[in-house]
Structures are given as C-alpha cells and as structure tokens.
Amino acid sequence: MGGGMSAPKPSPTTGLRIVVAGDHGTGKSSLISTAIPANDPPVLPEVPSVLAPIRLPDDMFPYCVPITVIDTSSSLQHRDELAEELKTADAIVVTCSYDQPATLDLDHRLCTFWLKYLQDLQVKAPVVVAFCKADIKQPIHLPKLMLPILQRYPQLENYLECSAKLRTLTPDIFLYAQKAVLFPTPPLYDRETKTLKPRCLRALIGVFTLFDSDKDGCLSDKEFNDLQAKCFGTPMEDIKVQCLKSYVEKIMPEGAVIDNKLTLRGFLTNHAELIEHHHPEITWTILKKNEYDNEIKFCCDRLLPPIKRTLDQSVELTTEALEHLRRVFSLFDIRGDGASNARELEDLFSTQPVSLWNEAPSVEVNVLGELSVTGFLSKWALMALLNPVLTVEILKDMGYAGNPTSAVKVTQRRRVDREKQRSDRNVFQCFVFGAKEAGKSSLMHAFVGRPFSQDYTPTIEERYAVNIVDFPDGRRKTLILREIPEDATRKLLTHKDALAACDIAVFVYDSASATSSAKATELLVQVESTGYVVPCLIVAAKCDLVPFATTIQDTTRVSMGIEVPIPLSTKLGDCNDIYRKIVSAAEQPHLRIPKSPKTVWKLS
What we know:
Blueprint: E1 16-22, H1 28-33, E2 54-56, E3 67-70, H2 79-87, E4 91-97, H3 107-120, E5 127-132, H4 142-152, E6 156-161, H5 170-182, E7 189-190, E8 195-196, H6 198-211, E9 218-219, H7 221-232, H8 238-251, E10 257-258, E11 261-263, H9 264-276, H10 280-289, E12 315-317, H11 319-332, E13 339-340, H12 342-348, H13 354-358, E14 371-372, H14 373-386, H15 388-397, E15 408-410, H16 414-420, E16 427-434, H17 440-447, E17 463-470, E18 476-483, H18 486-493, E19 504-510, H19 514-529, E20 536-541, H20 548-551, E21 566-567, H21 578-587
Parallel strand pairs: 1-3, 1-4, 4-5, 5-6, 16-18, 16-19, 19-20, 20-21
Antiparallel strand pairs: 2-3, 7-8, 9-11, 10-11, 12-15, 13-14, 17-18
Helix pairs in contact: 7-10, 8-9, 9-10, 14-15
C-alpha cells in the first residue's frame, strides 16, 4: 500500500530545521557534508569542526520541503548555543559512532545523557539516531539494543546505520528526520503495546468503511484499488495486492483475509505493521487524502451544519451510523465478550469530550458493571437527541466515513404523528412524573437491569435511563425515560414548549398511598393544562404492598382515552411489560390523549 505521498507541510518559507547533535568525534560534520548528492568519488573530505548551516536541495527528497541542517559543537563552552539550537529544531539527529565504544553504551549516553538532556530542555522534536562510521561496524545486534529504547521513548522515531566514508545512507538520515516531522509516529501508534492509537484506529475504520462499497465488511481488490487510486494516484499492481494479502495473512492467519478479500482487521493489521517498520507516511497519506487533519480530526468544513427542525421534532441516528458504532464497539472490545470495561471505554473515548459521555444516562450493564453493546448504543441515542451536531462531530472523529448528514435524521413532527395516528420513530422520549417515593426511580432502575433497593434516595435533578425495547415481531425501539423530580415539575412546565419533545408522559403513584395518588392526579392536570396534546399512561407502583384489585376497585376512568392504572412491583420483579406498553402507546399517540381537564381516580 503506497505511492506518491502528500505531506502535511510546515511553513513553506522557513521549511524544516534539522539539528545534528552528538558526542565529540562521532561524525556529525562528516555526516552532513556527505549527505548532499555529489559526483565526487566516495572519499571522505576534510571538514571543519563545526559546519555553517547547510540548505539541502528542495528536490532531494520526494516531499519537496526545504531543509536546513544545523551542525553543533559538543564542547561544554558551547552548551548554551547547543541548547538554543535544540529548542528551535523541527527534528534532531543524535549521532553515535562505531569507533567510539562509549557512545554505543546506549543506556548511558543515548538515554541517560542525550534523551534526558532533551527532556530537561522540554524539547519535543522527534529524534533520529545515526550510527555513524558503519564501515568499521562492531559485532553488535542493533535492532535488539534499540527496540526497548524505541518503546520507552516515544520521541525517538527511528535509527539508521550510515557511513560518511563510503557515502552510504547519509542522505537517508535526513530523509528519516524529515519524515519524522511530516509523518510523526506517536499520534498513530503505541510502540510499547504495538497497537494503533485509538484516534488513528477510528479514522482508519472510517476510511475502510468508506471504500467498502458493498458493505460486506471486506475490501475486494477493486475496492482496495479505489482507495489506492484516491490516495496515491494509481492503483496497485495485482501481484502486489496479492503479496500484501499474503503478508498480512501470515501475521494474522485467522480473519485477515476472507474469500480473498482484505477484512477490516487485516487492513488495520497492515497499517500497524507499516508503522512498526517505519513507514507512517503511508498511513498519514491515506488519512490526509480522506480529509483528516494533523491531529487526526475530521476537517471542520465537512461536519454537520446546524439542523433545522421544529420543537416537536427529534433527531435520531441512522442505520449507517449505528452500524458504524457497532463496528467500533466490537473492535475496542479487546476481550471479545460483548462488553466494554473501563479501560476499553477509556481507549475508545480517549480523545473525546468525556464530560458529554459521563453525563449520559443510566444504561444496561453486565454483572461486572461493564457496558453492553445495547447500553453503548442507548447512550448514543440520547446524545443524538440532546446534541446532534456535537454527536456527529464526535462520530466523525471516531471514523464515521459517510457524509455527516447521513449520520442523523430528523423525525416527523409529533403533531403529524397524532394526526396520522401512527409514529414510526425509532427513539421515544417518555417523561416520568410522580410524587416523592412514588417509585419513579425504581421504574428507571428496573428498565436498565439495576437491582431493587429498599433504600430511598430522593431525586434532586432530572435524570435519564435508556434501553432498547424488543417486541415479539422483531421490532426494536429505543426508549428514553426522563425522570422529572416532583419539585421540578412546576418549573419545567412554566416553559411553554417544555413538552414539545415528549412522546408520552407516565404518571407514577404509590398504590398504598392516597397522598401519592392525589399528587399524580395533580401533576396530570398540570400537564393537561399546558395545552400540549401528550399521550399519557398511569402506573400504580408498589402493588406488592396492597392487592391491586382492592386498591382500585372504585376506579373512574382517568380520562376518556386513558386506560386504568397499570399495576407493577419492581420489588417483586413484576413490571407488567410496562416498557413495551409505553412504547406501544407512543407509537399510537392518538389512543392515550386525555380529553378531559379533570382527572380523578379513587383509592378505597
């Protein structure tokens, strides 16, 4: 996977400043002087102790970025000058030498002195290590020595052996330094864990999804070459495509290639291998060509514009967006158990506005308190309802490849739903009203599988519980329960459009309390008095405390069109199919509309 590269260029006027530093006698000046292509025979020239700054030819490397190379002195009297040069460097080359055994004590000189010195100066520029005078190479195994150092120091991008005497690979040192600036590895890859960074992973998922035109979860040779042509200007030769698949299949024998097609996991594995072997430019080129910026964020001009909708319209995620989220969840579910623990969620949202996610609702978790895929999608449903523009921004940043407008849809107006006597929404919002200790919170907890608790904790602020409600006919609807504290009801209803977003209102009362019943009646009248036409249901909670049949034996229909209260006991685990009943009532809103300004039911 490769071709002509496009670089995220630095300033076109100043270009890159590459500073060469290292111990005395390690070949800094000779490295620089022999890096420029020349027709001279490979004889090492006499060079001064410190060279003046040298401008490399702009066309010396494929990216055509101006490069100025700065030589430095390692003497103590020039230490301040060295520090200033390092602080302004775009990239740094640290030299070691095969004829200076002390410099090959990498833990001592490279790590303890040079890399620590850069840390002390708070220099963040990428570092390339040049092992000079390779023509007199000592019998050491360099990869074995450098691998743990590369893992420990993310700032250290690469290393290379070279020989100024033989003019071998000296230009490549500066090519590597240039690439370290233009195509940095740290945003893409964690060398210690040998894994793609979360933001890079999500972006590559988005690119894969974009070019998986038949949405079969694989890239055919044609789809793969569509990607190649867009990013590198030309498709890859057939034999090279087959070689790539064979290579990835050797690394990942199971699941990298299916039916001679590259899977998503195979695609990601290939990129991890490319970066591990010092070719981040390929991954960066693909990201840049697909409109990701230097922080691997989707370019702002391709994000969702403000959504036009009336107050009684909602925003839902589309099937395409939900499928993308399922794919992302699966990839970050490292254990493959269908649930995400705290670490997996931290990786998934490592670059996102954590506050938005943390303020999301109570959702379904497993016995270990880990988030299920249902809970994950439920949270996203609420996020899309409350802040669709920001939700799509996060979705795009998580690699959603489609047009931002394809990620969400605006629902039909609720008024039209009632007129047509049918709502085809996939997400319903239910306002839950009731007196203190009526059982509202228990209803919320039971919805997301929380165990019943005898302890009473008053609800001070509004809160949400979200889950997916399954029906026997295969329908799946997302239900958002929004608990309204008793003391907050009047304030809520003072806003004239407070109920515009309400698909259905549920009024909960304690079956054994006449006071609770009266308060529910009062709240229902308040809701009716707003003038908003809202379907309503009444829930008789705690029916385990007193037999429901005698409690409501003298019932007057609450209001024409509203059924008698629905009894349930969360303590006994008998919710009487209440959540399906809520969704069904919301789907046929005309059947549960109060038609009387007065609402009464009597407790014996």
